[in-house]
Amino acid sequence: MTDRPLLRGALGLVFVGLLAVPLLVQQWSSGAAGTSTDPSTALERYGFALENVAAEVGIDFSHQAPDLDSSLAHIMPEVAQAGASVSITDVDQDGYADLYVTNSKRGTRNALYRNQGDGTFTDMAPELGIAALNRPETGTSMGSVWGDYDNDGDEDLFVYKWGRSALFRNDGDAGFTRVTDRLQGLPDWMNANAAVWLDANRDGHLDLFVGGFYAGDVNLWDLESTRMMPESYEYATNGGRNYLFLNQGDGTFTEVADEWGLTGTRWTLAAVASDLNGSGYPDLFLANDFGADQLYVNEGGEGFREASRASNVGSVPKSGMNASMGDVMNQGVQALYVSNLTEEGVLVQGNNLWMADSVSGNGTPAFENLAGTMGVAKAGWSYGAQFGDLNNDGWQDLFVVNGFYSGETRDSYWYDFSKIAGGYKSIIEDAANWPAMEGRSLSGHQQTRIWLNDGAGQFQNVAPAVGGASTHDGRAVALADFQNQGVLNAVVANQRGPVEFYRNTVDPQHDWIAFELEGTESNRSAIGARVTLHWTDAQGTPQRQLQQVHGGSGFGSQNQRRLHFGLGSDPTVEKAVIRWPLGTTQTLDAPDTNTIHRVTEP
Fold it and tell me: pTM score > 0.90 for this model?
């Protein structure tokens, strides 16, 4: 009976040793790769250049972290690690992308920056009633996702919170109406850290998945016990539960997670929905902190079957913090990118880039991790990541934000952190046992990674060279063409830091094409729709790239629903094949380049 405790104790000591020894020789660095260059050189060398112009365009927003129970004061940055988020929408259907950002301290306000169409933004959240959501009695915001759940042509808003999450119906010119009571089965309190819209049963109405982080019965502002931390750093199952709200088609939702097989109490930080096995139904991937990630295969719109180990994505426990997708090889297949934890010389989990290489007879996809092979494994303590063609050369690049906590000094908390992480359950799960951080950093001052896809299976970090090497503690990143000019800009939400708005200047010789989709029989937002673009590049090589409309992806983020394809110089576009969420296929032959194509489901 004593073998297991003794073994666990021995493994804990080994883990502490592995973490602690390198700290004696570790040198702090910014993690920069490449050499800083001026914009003109960056444009010539890499095909694009970024500039943070948040103040210039009218975005003045700085995130404030949750102010939790005083018994957590000694490790507040560790516990209050999330809440900075950004989601993209067109709130007033004027054809220009707007952005919504969240705050997380009680009494602070969220902001909806409406695009004025002239390159500037104005915060409209107060007058629309979606600003003052961070209250002592209802908790504070962690993120948001947009989707037209009632198919009336206006994007509705779900704000997930540590506390009472909120659903707002967009009534067009009349503003927003709080309709949270339509989510039947939503608890009065939960610690949600992820949400995505999807049409799980393909009935033409958007459903909503919500994932929990801390256990649902924990009020972080009024703790009954300090035993609320993860019970393990590899196999924790004392986190929050999952919720799946099925849209009834009459403006109400019914919670069915248990009946649909979405059970478990992992520490979920991110989720993404996509058809991963070609069945036509969206599967669900969950990135979990303190343990293995999970994949749920959709069983014909009647439930989900967990296939985490069988698919390989849940074979190794890490610290999953992001879930995003991109066709990085131009093969018409999307890869799944999951961020984890890397501190060189201390602990290297490495991020995952899962590529599906087969599907079994029962519909379970099998994945292989190519992150190391393609050069996108080591970024830092990574959170949000998004794929997008930043230089319009025809290949999906990868934007990753990093950094857990940049303290008052560069003294490291890692040694004390390792003592806890290698301890017994009774030690780890009690916050009272954690050593005080005392202003020390934990994987702080880390640079953003902007990995440029070379089209030959390798990525190069060009963040310092192109003007995107921020060292704020990044959480969420979202991509959008805010000026309708065929260029993807980036918005970054930083924990305890400012929102950064990166204006992108791209080589004008690189062409592009974009598709704005609207469902009719399918959900109006066209969430779940796929576009496969076929073209021939300037060298005569056929290219095929797949993109999907997502109802949330990354960490605490949602990209513009419009799908943007870079094409490189002198392309010949053959066709765009659209697969709508309900299965209808539509082909556009030889669509014009350098054009936004607005397409309605036939």
Answer: yes
